[in-house]
């Protein structure tokens, strides 16, 4: 998917008898559904945020951020902002020549 004229990766994994696992990865970090562990992301020093109640990548982008690591907070990501806003902050600067 395109974000700020750069590419981000959205992954949806179907799970048996469960909602899907979802993660959207940008240049500097990722947004994950509630299946993945935010405490571990913090321990590893990752730029990460969580959303809940999502079933598609589009849902991840529209959902409010529910939790985040300290490194995500340092990028300006805040609880309550939409996933797409957080993802935009996770995308690197456009380093292509003008």
Describe the structure.
Helix content is 26%, strand content 22%. Strand 5 (30-32), helix 1 and strand 6 form a beta-alpha-beta unit. It has a five-stranded mixed sheet. Strands 1-2 form a two-stranded antiparallel ribbon. The chain has a single domain (2-90), classed as Hypothetical protein YunC (Hypothetical protein Ta1206 fold). It starts with a strand and ends in an 8-residue tail after the last helix. The model is unreliable at 94-98 (pLDDT under 50). It contains four helices and seven strands; from the N terminus they run E-E-E-E-E-H-E-H-E-H-H. The longest helix is centred in the last third of the chain and has 8 residues, at 83-90. The protein is α+β, with helices and mostly antiparallel strands.
| Unreliable stretches | 94-98
Strand order of the largest sheet: 3-4-5-6-7
Q: What share of residues are in beta strands? A: 15-25%
Helix content: 25-40%
Number of helices: 4
CATH architecture: 2-Layer Sandwich
Radius of gyration: 13 Å
Q: Could you give the order of the helices and strands?
A: EEEEEHEHEHH
What kind of sheet is the major sheet? 5 strands, mixed
CATH class wording: Alpha Beta
Instruction: Give the name of the CATH superfamily.
Output: Hypothetical protein YunC
Distance between the termini: 22 Å
CATH topology: the name is Hypothetical protein Ta1206 fold
The computed structural class is: alpha+beta
């Amino acid at each position: 998917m395109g974000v700020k004229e750069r590419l981000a990766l959205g992954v949806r994994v179907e799970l048996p008898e469960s909602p899907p696992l979802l993660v959207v990865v940008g240049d500097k970090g990722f947004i994950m559904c509630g299946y993945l562990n935010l405490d571990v992301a913090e321990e590893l020093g990752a730029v990460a945020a969580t959303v809940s109640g999502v079933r598609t990548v589009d849902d991840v982008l529209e959902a409010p951020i529910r939790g985040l690591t300290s490194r995500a907070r340092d990028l300006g990501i805040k609880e309550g902002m939409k996933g797409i806003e957080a993802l935009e902050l996770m995308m690197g600067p456009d380093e292509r020549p003008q």
